[in-house]
Amino acid sequence: MEIFLILGIPLLLAISALFIRKQRTFGIVNSIGYLAVLFAGISLFKSIITKGSAKAFLGFIYLDFLSAFFIFVTSVIAFAVSLYSIGYIRKDVAQGVISEKKAQVYYLLFNLFCFSMFVVPAVDNLGMLWVAIEMTTLISAFLVGFYNSKESVEAAWKYIIICSVGIIFALLGTILFSYAFSISGLSKSLNWSDIAPVAHILDKDILKVAFIFILVGYGTKAGLAPMHTWLPDAHSQAVAPISALLSGVLLKMAVYAILRFGMIIIKSVGFAYFAHLMILFGIISLAISSGFILVQKDIKRLLAYSSIEHIGIISIGFGLGSPLAIAGALLHVFNHAVTKSFMFFGAGNIVSVYKKHNMNTIRGVIRAMPFTGIMVLLGMFALTGFPPFSIFISEIMILAAAFTNGSYTIAALLLFFLSLIFGAFIYHFGKMLFGKLPKGMVVSAEPLSKRLAFLFLLFLICVLGIALPFIKKDLLWFAQRLLQG
Questions:
Q1: For 72, which of 38, 99, 350, 464 is 20 to 30 Å away at the CA?
Q2: CB-facing half-sphere around the CA of 57: CA atoms within 13 A
Q3: What is the spatial distance between Cα 362 and Cα 433, in angstroms, rounded to a whole number?
Q4: Torsion of CA 400, 401, 403, 407, to 10 degrees
């Protein structure tokens, strides 16, 4: 029942956006709708965990622990972004940046975008999974180019072209998986629930080639290097609330797709093949992102490259493969989604007040915007894995798993790149937050809706950082079940 609320409410809100003209009124209605989606997401997750078995509906929807987890992550971020959007869009309308009519378009696209991301982990059919991920690209492209500036339109086109090329590889991989299933003598099907149980009898050579296509294709959408080139432009030019959704949720949908196919590969050809590819792309992503983070000048592009870094960490966690590493990777999916959305909210506020993206010209944020400045300071430490914030716990779990597995080179590389990025963040944000206040800059305050969005995410970041060590046993059990499909 919960899944129909989760899919139905965004569609209902998208239709309502066409008829409720006052953006402030609709923003509140929108947030109430996503609060209901959040409760439904929590209920679904709890139900799947309690029963310990998957749910199937209409031969189309298939929900297991992995599906429920990604739906839960999406519902958390969607609610936070809906809250933040109230004040953000209202300010854009008040300043004449966009009209009331364009605000309606924003909320229409926002809800369709959220709907498409909820569909991705809900569908059983791997072909429909591909369609849903392509749908997220097409809808979010309009939100990347929302302001119709030269830079945003260029970023939107780059996003569509690169991700569409990548998604073609994913389609070829999906076709090969279907072909391997059909030549095995079984009935033709693209349902994951049909293919996974018989993965061990499928042609291993075909599946190996197919998974490379899948990893390159969906890895492009996930932001894995070197297929990441669309990501910094799209994240930096999108509307700030959408940057949070892109980084916090959209990248994870592609990770989800890789995991779905990866579970078939593991059952068919063994874990080593999957592991080597995931760790390779993870290390490349960390290396490339750290270099760009060191020299970056644009605040939103800095956060975009940080997303590539964290997707690399997640990839390494899944590649290591032990229950501890898998649990750490799953937690990192959630922790990064929450923390990066938090930071994009801060960046959105800073850019809105300073009218600049260049970090070299932004100074005195804590004096000009005390609340946002303090939130960004906390978010900077949280994002770089400083204790006691939640990302620290998930990174420690992955590092501990690497040492336990005897993967000392991987652990050393992780520590090196994390230290490098920590230093770069301290340098960049230290200058912005504590520099001298520009002349003529007046102190500004954030509306209540924005503050609530920050505090909601900060609560999750802090509470999880404290609570996670006490629920590690349950997490390891979930990770073990995930490895078993």
A1: 350
A2: 9
A3: 8
A4: -150
What three-state secondary structure class fits 196? helix
Q: Quote the CA–CA distance of 253 and 395 in Å, as a whole number.
A: 21
Of 124, 482, 121, residue with least CA distance to 318: 482
Interatomic CA distance for residues 325 and 328, integer angstroms = 5
Q: 258-295, pLDDT tens digit by residue?
A: 999 999 999 889 889 999 999 999 999 999 999 999 99
Reference 105, options 157, 75, 142; nearest CA is 142
Q: What is the pLDDT of residues 349-391, one digit of tens each?
A: 998 888 888 888 888 889 888 999 999 999 999 999 888 888 9
* Distance separating alpha carbons of residues 316 and 279, to the nearest angstrom: 5
Separation CA 244–CA 457 (nearest Å): 12
- 225 and 308 Cβ atoms separated by less than 8 Å: yes
Coil, helix or strand at residue 446: coil
What pLDDT was estimated at residue 341? 94
Write down the pTM of the prediction.
0.94
Phi, psi of 293 (to 5 degrees): -65, -40
Residues contacting 94, CB < 8 A, separation 6+: none
| Distance between CA atoms of residues 423 and 88, nearest Å | 31
Q: Where are the domains of the chain?
A: 270-485
DSSP class per residue in 231-284 = HHHHHHHS-HHHHHHIIIIIHHHHHHHHHHHHHHHHHHH-HHHHHHHHHHHHHH
Helices 323-354 and 65-94, packing angle to 10 deg:
10
* Structure-token pair, residue 107: 């909320």
Six-digit token pair at 3? Answer: 């899944």
State how far the Cα of 454 lies from the Cα of 379, in Å rounded to an integer. Answer: 10
